[in-house]
Amino acid sequence: MTKNICRYFLLLICFYLMQTGPVQSQSTYTIGSTEYYYNSYYSTTGRPMVKRSEANKRKFLAKLGYKKVPRGYEIDHIIPLSEGGSDDPSNMQLLTKEAHERKTARERASRWRSTGTSRPYFSKPSYSTGTRKSQKISNTGPKGGRYYYNSKGKKVYVGR
């Protein structure tokens, strides 16, 4: 009886490992110069997840005359990968770490709050660059409300 139970659990473990291990020999597919993972999607937009290419990163840096990312800078995708942007050097730019954080905060804030997804790719987020007041960037929203992003990237309203 115990041998049968052991065999049963061994079969269950083998089945579980087959399900959670590599599902396919080819786990990615390519469209243009962008490689995507099969059955993986961004939780924020539902779009296919991009496999970031080190070769494309090197091409982008070489085009600017660099071998590695300069200190204090980060590579940013102009159109975010989660929004359908490609992992092609033409969709990359160098930003300071601070500018990259602000851009990411603006992109996250522009997503629809009610559904938790992003705006459709054909609509443009509406925000102004704002003015700097007491270490905070003050922005004016589409309805005239004034706000800034705190250190956690959350939008804080300050009135009209």
Q: Tally the helices: what do you get?
A: 3
Radius of gyration equals 22 Å
Terminal-residue CA separation: 76 Å
DSSP strand tally: 9
Main sheet record: 4 strands, antiparallel
* Share of residues in strands: 25-35%
Binned, the helix content reads 25-40%
How much is the average pLDDT? 75
The residue ranges in which pLDDT falls below 50 over 5 or more consecutive positions are 117-137
Largest sheet, spatial ordering of strands: 6-7-8-9
Order of helices and strands: HEEEHEEHEEEE
Features:
160 residues; 26% helix; alpha+beta; 3-stranded antiparallel beta sheet; extended; single chain
Structure description:
This protein is of the alpha+beta class and 160 residues long. It is built from three helices and nine strands. It has helices at 2-20, 54-63, 97-109; strands at 28-31, 34-41, 48-51, 73-77, 92-96, 131-133, 136-140, 146-149, 155-159. The strands form three sheets. The chain has a four-stranded antiparallel sheet, with helices on one face. Strand 1 (28-31) and strand 2 form a beta hairpin. The longest helix is centred in the N-terminal third of the chain and has 19 residues, at 2-20. The model is unreliable at 117-137 (pLDDT under 50).
